[in-house]
């Protein structure tokens, strides 16, 4: 890794945001952020680029996943390091860095839970949840009982209850999501109260997901080995 | 005249990149000619023929003296020269002796333990799997050069999707040793999908079920307008057509053993003959309901047997059942049901077997597609990827994933995953770790690959140390570990102390048995000498070890005279003289025996010296 000179070089590249590092023309559209529309040269990654904007999308909790995929393919087709394998050098390095960012962004935006978490963190980095993540009390005690005495019938019953609780939680999250997106649509910033509520729901949602994984593990231990 | 010359030049590619399918049983080479240029038309690969005139080049290496011979000529010697002829070397590539315990008895050639990678004994010489694979690749390179009429120095080589990092690095090393710059290692099922998708009407979600000679892979892909996105991949790198041959051979062997009282598997030549006859039975049974097997035994008797397809399928079924789990896991990882797929593509010679087709149909609940050429499609796909990397095909793009999870060892011997399997590459991942002992000033970063929880069940890729951490209570330091995989699948790992900014990083090059320096050394040696070099190295290693024993013994002579009986001292002196004599020769077994004898004669002395050390240290403490 040659650190000094490369870093200096990069810094000078970053001095002119919005214009191509190679030909100097102004970047056009969401594709132009990644690859120059005129000369096809991949642009260096800037710190703090917005994930949604990378795909030409507005910051929303709910997105069109088909559109996301089309955009991902469209940009990859021009940006992927395989396009610069025969060229090498800065072009290859910039394309690798940017493609890594794009791959990661696609992974996050495609997954509803990760997408919500990321956006919430953007809108309210310091917000604390409106309440501590609280698993429904009866569900938690049922889980402890199950670990003391795990039998097939009890496990099935528990799974059903967990499923119902999860469905209810998803419904609440979807309602909040619509509410927040409606506000974002009008250009206004959602209030801290609403964001804190969403944060609490996401936390208990992830608690339920991890409980679901624990159930799978318990099932394997009980009935497979 | 002039115009003719221009045209022939236009058809010549000054620096072609070829695609290579380095198979367990057969290898192939393919190439997309630049003359297919009209940019919007499909760029079709052509399969190149070998110097022997065939498109299939048996991955078999035999030796005529020191000279390696590859291909059909070598395959013909599989029986008569069983002990000098190496086949299925791909199953050994990037593996250690311990990984292969189960296989040693099934091959006619001998496997030996070596540092890192397993060694293969051929006559008096010892080779690594990298060297044998390099001999195959060199033959492929020469064949491509003969077919294209220009030097060939660059290639894309395919490997099973489920190959781990050391198997991939070993393949790269073999390429280098053969004089090829390996631009990319790509997965066989992915390559197959590139060739399948040449026909642009083929779109949607597909599964590639790839059963080769020695490996099984399954990949789920999305094909859309020239984009080939790998969604999930799974497999078993120890499962293939070879196992079907072996099942037939073992059944026949136990019958022969019952009749004659002698296990034919004890005789390497008989073993090779049985395996070859079994392979022929398997191939015949894919066409007809019955096949004959006839083997002349060493006693002069002839063992004859008729195999029905039913009988064979009973043996094969449990082996093929092992393909089910990887298929279901891949579907689950892709988040799909079998009904979401629009096609199931069969790849690999063994998929010609009706039973294999039935198994695939049963797993995926649909009639599999047998229209692609099961032997040629992988090499063709490698050539398409070569064409993409050459910058000639801008319509196609492969979006690939890591086949196995990558992580580091954490407290309690557990693996913590940083990059889960099926993550798109290039990829980066960062995680912060801390210390678990007070005042700890260094941490070991142990890089792992695999899906299991315990470190011991996964593959160790590399280790390095981050030093200079400030003395602090356990849990206080913050150490950021980052993993970076580029489009070539090469992993870089860095660890950084967030407080001091101190950083350590390495490019992960796992031990496939040869260090980079060793590979360099081999490259410098002439082609003909590569084999002799390996032997020389082996002799040198044995001699060095023996010299160490000799020096240690000579140093102890005065103590021996003080502590041992006259007879014992005499025995040691004779053993020393014998070892000195043996070291004058290059006879490995002789040197090893003399060295063992010397060791044995000094055991008593060593015991007495050890007791002395213990009692004197006790004395010191008491005083």
Oligomer: heterodimer
**Distance linking N and C termini of chain B:** 103 Å
Choose one word for the global shape of chain B.
Answer: globular
Radius of gyration of chain B: 28 Å
How is the CATH topology of the largest domain in chain B named? Nucleotidyltransferase, domain 5
Tally of DSSP helical segments of chain A: 9
Would you kindly provide a brief summary of this structure?
The complex is a heterodimer of chains A (225) and B (623). By secondary structure, chain A is an all-alpha fold. Chain A contains 9 helices and no strands.
Task: Name the features.
heterodimer, A: 225 residues, mainly alpha, Helix Hairpins, B: 623 residues, alpha+beta, Nucleotidyltransferase, domain 5, Actin, Chain A, domain 4, Substrate Binding Domain Of DNAk, Chain A, domain 1, 4 domains, six-stranded mixed β-sheet, five-stranded mixed β-sheet, globular, disordered N terminus, disordered C terminus
Could you please describe the fold and organization of this structure?
The complex is a heterodimer of chains A (225) and B (623). Chain A has helices at residues 4-13, 29-32, 51-54, 65-79, 89-110, 112-123, 137-148, 152-185, 192-223. Chain A is mostly helical and 225 residues long. Chain A has two domains: 4-110, Helix Hairpins; 132-223. The longest helix of chain A is centred in the C-terminal third of the chain and has 34 residues, at 152-185. By secondary structure, chain B is of the alpha+beta class. Chain B folds into four domains: 2-239 and 322-399, ATPase, nucleotide binding domain (Nucleotidyltransferase, domain 5), CATH 3.30.420; 241-321, Actin, Chain A, domain 4 (Alpha-Beta Complex); 406-511, Substrate Binding Domain Of DNAk, Chain A, domain 1; 525-622, Substrate Binding Domain Of Dnak, Chain:A, Domain 2. In chain B, 38% of the residues lie in helices and 24% in strands. Chain B has 17 helices and 27 strands. In chain B, a hairpin with a 5-residue loop joins strand 26 (491-497) and strand 27 (503-507). In chain B, helix 6 (241-260) packs across helix 7 (268-285). The longest helix of chain B is centred in the last third of the chain and has 27 residues, at 529-555. Chains A and B meet through helix 4 and helix 5 of A and strand 19 of B.
């Amino acid at each position: 890794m040659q650190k000094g000179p490369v870093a200096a070089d990069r810094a000078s590249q970053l001095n002119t945001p919005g214009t191509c590092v190679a030909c100097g023309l102004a970047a056009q559209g969401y594709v132009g952020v990644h690859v120059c529309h005129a000369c096809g040269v991949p642009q260096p990654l800037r710190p703090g680029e917005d994930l949604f904007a990378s795909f030409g999308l507005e910051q929303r909790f709910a997105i069109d996943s088909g559109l996301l995929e089309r955009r991902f393919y469209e940009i990859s087709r021009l940006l992927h390091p395989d396009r610069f394998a025969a060229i090498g050098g800065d072009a290859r390095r910039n394309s690798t860095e940017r493609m890594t960012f794009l791959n990661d962004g696609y992974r996050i935006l495609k997954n509803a839970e990760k997408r919500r978490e990321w956006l919430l963190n953007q809108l309210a980095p310091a917000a604390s949840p409106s309440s501590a993540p609280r698993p429904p009390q009866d569900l938690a005690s049922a889980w402890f009982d199950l670990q003391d005495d795990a039998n097939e019938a009890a496990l099935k019953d528990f799974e059903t209850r967990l499923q119902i609780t999860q469905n209810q939680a998803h419904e609440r999250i979807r309602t909040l999501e619509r509410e927040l997106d409606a506000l974002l649509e009008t250009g206004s910033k959602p209030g801290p109260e609403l964001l804190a509520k969403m944060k609490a729901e996401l936390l208990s949602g992830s608690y339920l997901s991890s409980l679901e994984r624990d159930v799978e593990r318990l099932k394997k231990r009980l009935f497979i080995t | 005249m002039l115009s003719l010359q221009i045209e022939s030049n236009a058809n010549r590619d000054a620096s072609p990149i070829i695609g290579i399918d380095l198979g367990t049983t057969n290898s192939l080479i393919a190439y997309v000619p630049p003359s297919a240029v009209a940019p919007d038309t499909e760029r079709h690969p052509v399969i190149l023929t070998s110097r022997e005139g065939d498109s299939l080049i048996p991955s078999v290496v035999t030796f005529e003296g020191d000279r390696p011979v590859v291909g059909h000529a070598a395959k013909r010697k599989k029986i008569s020269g069983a002990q000098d002829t190496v086949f299925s070397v791909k199953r050994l590539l990037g593996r250690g002796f311990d990984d292969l315990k189960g296989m040693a008895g099934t091959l006619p050639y001998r496997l030996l333990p070596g540092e890192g990678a397993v060694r293969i004994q051929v006559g008096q010489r010892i080779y690594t799997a990298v060297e044998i694979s390099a001999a195959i690749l060199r033959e492929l390179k020469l064949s491509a050069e003969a077919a294209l009429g220009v030097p060939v120095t660059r290639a894309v080589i395919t490997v099973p999707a489920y190959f781990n990092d050391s198997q991939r690095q070993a393949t790269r090393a073999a390429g280098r040793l053969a004089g090829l710059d390996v631009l990319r290692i790509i997965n066989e099922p992915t390559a197959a999908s590139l060739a399948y998708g040449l026909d642009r009407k083929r779109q949607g979600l597909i599964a590639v079920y790839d059963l080769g000679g020695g490996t099984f892979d399954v990949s789920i892909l999305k094909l859309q307008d020239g984009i080939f996105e790998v969604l999930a991949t799974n497999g078993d790198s120890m499962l293939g057509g070879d196992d079907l041959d072996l099942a037939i051979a073992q059944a026949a062997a136990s019958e022969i053993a019952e009749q004659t009282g002698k296990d034919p598997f004890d005789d390497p030549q008989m073993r090779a003959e049985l395996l070859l006859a079994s392979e022929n039975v398997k191939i015949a049974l894919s066409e007809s309901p019955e096949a004959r097997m006839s083997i002349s035994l060493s006693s002069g008797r002839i063992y004859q047997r008729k195999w029905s397809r039913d009988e064979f399928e009973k043996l094969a079924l449990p082996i093929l059942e092992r393909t089910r789990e990887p298929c279901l896991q891949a579907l689950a990882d892709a988040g799909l049901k079998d009904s979401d797929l629009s096609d199931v593509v069969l790849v690999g010679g063994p998929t010609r077997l009706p039973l294999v087709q039935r198994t695939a149909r049963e797993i995926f609940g649909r009639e599999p597609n047998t229209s692609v050429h099961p032997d040629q499609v992988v090499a063709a796909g490698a050539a398409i990827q070569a064409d993409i990397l050459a910058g000639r095909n801008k319509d196609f793009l492969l979006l690939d994933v890591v086949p196995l999870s990558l992580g580091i060892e954490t407290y309690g011997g557990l693996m913590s995953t940083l990059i889960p399997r099926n993550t798109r590459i290039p990829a980066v991942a960062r995680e912060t770790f801390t210390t678990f002992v007070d005042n700890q000033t260094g941490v070991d970063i142990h890089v792992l690959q695999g899906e299991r929880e315990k470190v011991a069940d996964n593959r160790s890729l590399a280790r390095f140390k981050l030093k200079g951490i400030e003395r602090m209570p356990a849990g206080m330091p913050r150490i950021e570990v980052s993993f970076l995989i580029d489009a070539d699948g090469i992993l870089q790992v860095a660890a950084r102390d967030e407080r001091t900014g101190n950083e350590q990083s390495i490019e992960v090059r796992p031990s496939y048995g040869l260090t980079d320096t060793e590979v360099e050394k081999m490259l410098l040696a002439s082609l003909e000498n590569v084999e002799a070099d390996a032997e020389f190295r082996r002799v040198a290693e044995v001699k060095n070890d023996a010299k160490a024993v000799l020096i240690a013994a000579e140093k102890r002579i005065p103590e021996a005279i003080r502590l041992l009986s006259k007879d014992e001292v005499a025995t040691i002196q004779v053993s020393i003289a014998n070892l000195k004599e043996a070291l004058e020769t290059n006879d490995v077994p002789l040197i090893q025996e003399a060295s063992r004898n010397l060791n044995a004669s000094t055991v008593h002395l060593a015991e007495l010296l050890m007791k002395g050390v213990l009692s004197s240290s006790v004395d010191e403490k008491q005083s």
